[in-house]
Amino acid sequence: MPILDFIHPLSYVFAAALAGRKFAAGWACYQQWIVWVWQGQVGLVIAALQARQVALGLPEEDEAETSPRQVVAKTLTYLENQQDKMQYDVYRQQGLPITSSLMESAVKQINQRVKGSEKFWTEGGSEAVLQLRADQLSDGKPLEDFWQRRQAAATGQRRYRRTG
């Protein structure tokens, strides 16, 4: 089941709510629309955007991307195309993540640890370290099993690579 990162509709809805409005009026509109998105009622936002599009008119071909008509049209199209991936009320009830921020944070940490300055890895070495970290974080006991196998196979001698 694909889930659209909540930050994406949040950004689109914010831009459309403020498009062509004074901030106070746009903010009030945004607050209502984002609550609907949060509750999984994206259809209500789409209906409101359709009404707004009628009031503003359709954008002209050469109209600026930032014009209210373009912003509303772009948001309307986006929400219509992604509506099936925006059932946030259901996702939250099922305990599913609705943003990718946790994964993005993990990737950032891995990149800092593996790709940081003064760090030089072979492909095999970095893969082994990443596998050990994944094993440590897993629910099973693969890391303990790894160390037991390593200890059992230890000879007390260091392995050297041949050079040439």
Question: What report would you give on this structure?
Answer:
By secondary structure, this protein is mainly alpha-helical. The chain has two domains: 7-93; 101-153, no CATH class. 65% of the residues lie in helices and 0% in strands. The protein has eight helices and no strands. It has helices at 7-18, 23-38, 42-56, 68-82, 88-93, 101-115, 123-137, 142-153. Helix 1 (7-18) runs antiparallel to helix 4 (68-82). The longest helix is centred in the first third of the chain and has 16 residues, at 23-38. The protein is elongated, with a radius of gyration of 25 Å. The model has no long low-confidence stretch (mean pLDDT 86).
Q: How would you summarize the topology of this molecule?
A:
Elements: H1 7-18, H2 23-38, H3 42-56, H4 68-82, H5 88-93, H6 101-115, H7 123-137, H8 142-153
Helix pairs in contact: 1-2, 1-4, 2-3, 3-4
